[in-house]
Specification:
Blueprint: H1 16-25, H2 34-63, H3 68-83, H4 88-105, E1 108-110, H5 116-120, E2 124-127, E3 139-145, E4 148-151, H6 170-175, H7 221-231, E5 236-240, E6 243-248, H8 251-261, H9 266-272, E7 275-279, E8 287-292, E9 299-306, H10 308-312, E10 315-320, E11 323-326, H11 329-344, E12 348-358, H12 368-371, E13 377-386, H13 393-402, E14 406-410, H14 415-425, H15 433-440, E15 455-459, H16 460-463, H17 468-475, E16 479-483, H18 487-499, E17 504-508, H19 514-519, E18 522-526, H20 533-538, E19 541-543, H21 548-573, H22 576-589, H23 597-607, H24 609-614, H25 640-668, H26 673-676, E20 702-704, E21 707-709, H27 711-740, H28 747-750, H29 756-774, H30 796-814
Parallel strand pairs: 2-14, 2-17, 10-13, 14-16, 15-16, 17-18, 18-19
Antiparallel strand pairs: 1-19, 3-4, 3-13, 5-6, 7-8, 8-9, 9-12, 10-11, 12-13, 20-21
Helix pairs in contact: 2-3, 2-22, 3-22, 3-23, 4-21, 7-8, 13-21, 21-25, 21-27, 22-25, 25-27, 25-30, 27-29, 27-30
Length: 815
């Protein structure tokens, strides 16, 4: 109690807090994120498939007697290159960077960008209450005095009626916000329903001349209540940047000061009731006392506030508009009823009383422990305060519930307060285990085992004795509130959630929260100045506005990361089959190689990069927050559906269309498929260097009926056919891009032009294609070996367009 000096004996890591910080910062190795695991799984699958297909084609070529160099280059190296999505790293990095930037605009700072997708897979959010779900601004909600309850917000505003006939002086107006209205005298003992606007009957202190004071004896109950709240208060205002801000005092004192000062200037009250002696609040006595002088009075006044049950125990009278009355059972019952009502509503309740003691010149040497002995107080009333929920939190929790995410409240507050706030914001919507245990006769010490119980409110003290089966029951509940919880219990809660396979996000702002932040899949720290640096260091994400609604926005972005990466992979894998088929035809059937290595590389590294990266800019689909969280054990970047679509529906069909365009070029020149089979075995369509001409024809000469084709003409036809395969594949991917932009929503509903970056991507892709097939310098045999395509080569792709749109739209409707 009182004031004193502190001696620093340890600093930094040598302190207890420092040791916790060191433990949290250096505990274990950073765990792989869910995204890292998915990428590793994807790379392993693709690598095994690439190695298997390359080895198979190499063996097929060697078995047919094709030269080792041709088999190795065409059958092994080209196949490996074709199977490896070279742009994956750029796509993933771009996706995470873009989403991290979008999240920053929503007040979510991402420290570790690969954790973004984990947040999208989150199934449980264990959130603090104060400052995250609520505003951390205590606000006066209800008052009890004179045997009646009054709600501050009745009529939507806190209107204060006053009967001071004289106009408020300039001094009063300057010192604080002041509302003065005139009213006629009323009988205050009339019935007043809870919630009706309350009144101040009168200060009736006249501010005359240069010396003015307030007369305590003429104060109404309301005036006395607010005066005690304003004078016995450690909070204070200070001018900062031209604004009056509360810069000292805890949240409760700040709330009382803010409300009292809205009625009349607290500074004026503090000047009129000068403090002579004070007893600070402590957790043992649970009250705070100030002794003040009162102008014109021989006695000093003792203003007391604190825990209501402690305050009323010292009172033998209660304040009434008609004077002080002896305490009786009826008033005590009204007090208890009001106290319980406020508590059930999740409000913090403070009791107020005053007493008169003989005035002293000095209070030096007064023992705080004995000063109040024998002093009988007059109970004035109660003020309840509430930390209101943040705007948008209730809606965010509703959205999380619709998304299959369970939001659990973990707080150090009283269970009644925690439950009341949880009900206000929608964390609890059903009868709790306590209620059901009482109805069903379940052991109250094991209330969470009540049958058909979906909502529990448990305390840290109860959790200390939980068995493994108890934890299994608790964490499987749909609605969970942990009250009076210690950091150790918070850590146990997280560990048991993880043990049962939940993907857990945890919020915290203190040093002691850092182990739980580390233990969770996603640690979320607060960004306010009051938050601990250790918590921010242990966390993966920092909420710059300390707002739970920002977590909901981050979850949506995290889900879009996985969606968009999956779409990008589906798009990229679709071109692999059309790249492998030409190699198979070449090595197994002896047909001319439809695409050379440079063409394949230009697709993998150039034409596919823009569209693939553009998919990371795709906006979330309309139902993304109505889906269940991703199950990391079953929902992967590569699934059977992904492979079926990419390799069969899109890939194999695209290969057939490319082959159609390729074969039609030869058909146009009178060469059938039968003529193409095993033609390379006889040296046809191989290109330069050519043998010496014989009769103006370069051997080997291909004869079909009456028509002959020398090596030069064969190569020219081959280049046109190869170009037809190349451009058809790129055009097919153009249509495929629009199909994979959505996985559940029709592209016609999403909009073809809703992603501008995708438009830029396909324009870039088509431009590169046009350059490769029309620029003469790039048509050289040792480069693309391309040629200006036939007009008919532009048509087959429209067959693919009709097919892929029909199939993809059907799959979206079905799945």
């Amino acid at each position: 109690q009182g004031s004193g000096f502190g001696v620093v004996i340890r600093t930094g890591n040598d302190t207890m807090i420092g040791s916790i910080a060191t433990l949290a910062a250096g505990s274990g190795v950073v765990e792989e994120s869910l995204l890292q695991k998915e990428i590793n799984r994807f790379v392993n699958i693709i690598a095994m498939f690439a190695l298997a297909s390359a080895s198979t084609l190499f063996v097929i070529g060697m078995a047919r007697g094709v030269s080792f160099l041709t088999c190795f280059v065409n059958g092994f190296i080209i196949v490996l290159v074709a199977n490896i999505p070279e742009g994956l790293a750029a796509t993933v990095t771009s996706c995470l960077a873009v989403v991290a930037k979008r999240m920053s605009a929503k007040n979510v700072l991402v420290k570790r960008i690969d954790i973004i997708e984990s947040l999208g897979a989150c199934s449980v959010i264990a959130s603090d209450k104060t400052g995250t779900l609520t505003q951390n601004i205590m606000t006066v909600e209800n008052l009890f005095y004179g045997g009646q309850i009054f709600n501050v917000h009745a009529g939507g505003t806190s209107v204060i009626l006053d009967s001071i006939i004289e106009r408020a002086t300039a001094t009063m107006a300057k010192q604080g916000s002041y509302t003065a209205r005139r009213r006629t005298s009323q009988e205050l003992s009339r019935s007043v329903s809870p919630g009706q606007t309350f009144t101040i009957s009168s200060f009736k202190s006249l501010l005359s001349g240069s010396s003015s004071s307030l007369n305590w004896e003429l104060f109404s109950c309301h005036a006395k209540l607010l005066t005690i709240a304003g004078v016995n208060n450690q909070a204070a205002y200070e001018e900062k940047d031209g604004e009056r801000r509360i810069v000292r005092g805890d949240a409760t004192d700040a709330g009382l000061l803010r409300y009292s000062d809205a009625v009349y200037p607290v500074l004026l009250a503090r000047q009129s009731f000068a403090t002579k002696f004070e007893i600070p609040f402590n957790s043992t006595n649970k009250y705070a006392v100030v002794v003040v002088s009162c102008a014109g009075a021989r006695d000093h006044l003792v203003f007391m506030k604190g825990a209501p049950e402690r305050i009323i125990a010292r009172c033998d009278k209660y304040a009434h508009e008609r004077g002080e009355r002896p305490m009786n059972d009826m008033y005590t019952e009204m007090f208890e009823d009001s106290y319980h009502r406020f508590g059930v509503c999740g409000e913090r309740v403070i009791g107020f009383a005053f007493a008169r003691v003989p005035a002293r010149e000095s209070y030096d040497g007064v023992d705080p422990d004995t000063f109040l002995n024998g002093v009988k107080f007059t109970f004035v009333g109660l003020i309840s305060l509430v930390d209101p929920p943040r705007p948008g939190v209730a809606e965010a929790i509703t959205n999380c519930r619709a998304a299959g995410i369970k939001v659990a409240m973990v707080t150090g507050d009283h269970p009644l307060t925690a439950e009341a706030i949880a009900r206000k914001i929608g964390i609890i919507t059903q009868p709790t285990s306590h209620e059901l245990a009482e109805l069903t006769g379940t052991d109250p010490t094991k209330h969470w085992r009540a049958p058909e119980c979906a909502a529990v409110v448990v305390t840290g003290a109860e959790a200390e004795n939980f068995t493994t089966s108890d934890w299994d029951i608790i964490v499987r509940k749909k609605e969970i509130v942990f009250a009076r919880t210690s950091p150790q219990m918070k850590l146990k809660f997280v560990e048991n959630l993880r043990r049962l396979g939940e993907i857990v996000a945890v919020t915290g702002d203190g040093v002691n929260d850092s182990p739980a932040l580390k233990a969770a899949h996603i640690g979320i720290a607060m960004g306010s100045p009051s938050s601990s640096d250790v918590a921010r260091e242990a966390a993966d994400i920092v909420l710059l506005d300390d707002n739970f609604a920002s977590i909901e926005a981050a979850v949506e972005e995290g889900r879009s990361v996985f969606d968009n990466l999956s779409k990008s992979i589906m798009y990229t894998l679709a071109h692999l089959t059309p790249q492998l088929v030409p190699v198979f035809f070449n090595l197994a059937l002896g047909m001319p190689l439809a695409m050379n290595g440079l063409m394949i590389l230009s697709i993998d590294l150039l034409t596919e990069q823009g569209p693939a990266i553009s998919l990371v800019y795709e906006k979330p689909e309309s139902d993304i927050m109505r889906r269940a969280p991703r199950n990391p054990k079953t929902d992967h970047l590569i699934t059977k559906r992904t492979l079926f679509y990419s390799y069969v529906l899109a890939g194999l069909t695209s290969s057939l269309i490319c082959f159609m365009a390729y074969a039609l070029v030869f058909k146009h020149h009178g060469i059938s498929l039968k003529n193409l089979l095993f033609s390379t075995d006889d040296g046809y369509f191989l290109g330069p260097p050519y043998a010496d001409a014989v009769d103006d024809e370069y051997p080997p000469v291909l004869t079909i009926g009456a028509r002959t084709y020398d090596a030069v003409e064969q190569y020219a036809i081959y280049r046109q056919a190869s170009t037809a395969w190349y451009l058809t594949l790129i055009l097919n991917q153009f249509w495929n891009l629009f199909c994979v932009r959505t996985s559940r929503t029709s592209i016609f509903r999403q909009g073809f032009f809703s992603n501008e970056v995708a438009i830029y991507g396909v324009v870039t892709s088509l431009t590169i294609m046009m350059v490769a097939i029309y620029i003469p310098e790039l048509q050289a045999p040792d480069l693309f070996a391309s040629a200006s395509p036939l007009g008919q080569s532009w048509l087959p792709t429209f067959v693919f367009a009709v097919w892929i749109f029909a199939v993809s739209e059907y799959m979206k409707l079905r799945f």
